[in-house]
Amino acid sequence: MNFIYPKVYANRATRIVEEAMRKLSLQFALLRHLRPFSYWDVFYGDPPAVNTDVFRLVSNDVLQRVDSKKFLAREAKRLGLEGHLVPYTFESVAEAQTLSRDANSIWFMKPVYATGGRGIECIRHRELNRLQLPNHHILQTQITDLELFDGRKYTARAYVFIFNKHVYCFDDGFVMIHGAPFDAASTDFSAQVDHADYYKPDGCVKMATLADLPDYPEKLASIVSALAQLNPVLEPLITASSPYRYALIGIDLLFQQHNKVQIVELNTKANFVHTDSINERLNVPFFAAFLSLLYLQNSHRRLTQI
Fold it and tell me: Using the 8-state DSSP alphabet, how is residue 251 labeled?
């Protein structure tokens, strides 16, 4: 069968993009002009020479700026979001020590650009006196009163699409369920951070979707409410967007009891290739939803405008 869809320039998630395009093929057949689509991360090489008549990401400079964990920390402080929507985050040990905490409470030391848990270390408050914080790292407080999944910590990711000065939240996202039983007092990397083997069928770490969680409608409503508060943080991406420029954001968050949201990271270069099940149930439908909005200029039932 011949599928009709735009020319694609992509060096990330290419199979996901093309599968989403195929799902929209019948709608594309009704359009007179199919503007090319580019999803190109310049980290992996310069994009091909294309004209301006292309849907493409906002500039890499803007993506890099927002991707830094320091950016979220500074904006949360500026907007008064720190401590209730975003964890307390500091760029030096001296600053972290100004926060009154129990000696055994835990900090996460994170590289400002690494993803997937890489480079993160768990440190007790009493150990800060001996800590030499490496360059390009931050310290972030542990979130307490977490909701668990089968006794394990999990991290969720909401999918956000920014286009033509508007922010949209997809109605699902993924959940990364850690392999080791959770102990809030432990600094064990496997319980607190590690999810490296999620793609292995026999691995300890498991993936699910937000829709698989208890109280899913309430959780989705909490995410939408949190994103409304976060909208000013996303302003550089909103300003850089246009009828031809877009951004895809993976927003990492934790759920506390009663479905309360804590936003821990913004990922402007998020990974959209996971297990076959998550690709089929989540990633391809997300791309199909925002591509439908791009090309048909109509609202999509699975995207909520913030």
Answer: E
Asked if residue 170 lies in contact with residue 220, where contact means CB atoms within 8 angstroms, the answer is no
Distance CA 190, CA 197 (A): 11
Q: Output the pTM of the full model.
A: 0.93
Q: For the residues of 16-52, what is the DSSP string, one character each?
A: HHHHHHHHTHHHHTT-S----EEE--GGG-PPPP--S
pLDDT of residue 1: 59
Residue where the block lists tokens 């007179």: 32
Q: How far is CA 243 from CA 1, 19, 61, 239, 261, in A?
A: 32, 23, 19, 12, 31
CA distances from 156 to 37, 128, 131, 208, 223 (A): 28, 28, 29, 9, 10
CA distance 20 to 139: 38
Strand locations in the chain, DSSP E? 8-10, 37-39, 56-57, 89-90, 106-111, 121-124, 137-141, 154-163, 166-177, 206-209, 245-255, 261-267, 303-305
- Name, of 41-50, 195-204, 252-261, the range with top average pLDDT: 252-261
Tracing tokens 């091909």 back to the chain, one arrives at: 48
Rounded Cα distance between 75 and 24, Å, is 38
DSSP code of 198? T
| 44, 11 Cβ separation under 8 angstroms | yes
- Greatest mean pLDDT among 48-57, 60-69, 186-195, 292-301: 60-69
The span from the CA of 222 to the CA of 218, in Å, is: 6
3-state helix, strand, coil in the chain (%, to 5): 35, 25, 40
Quick one: pLDDT at residue 188? 85
User: How large is the C-alpha radius of gyration of the chain?
Assistant: 20
From residue 82, give the alpha-carbon distance in Å to each of 52, 85, 86, 124.
39, 6, 5, 20
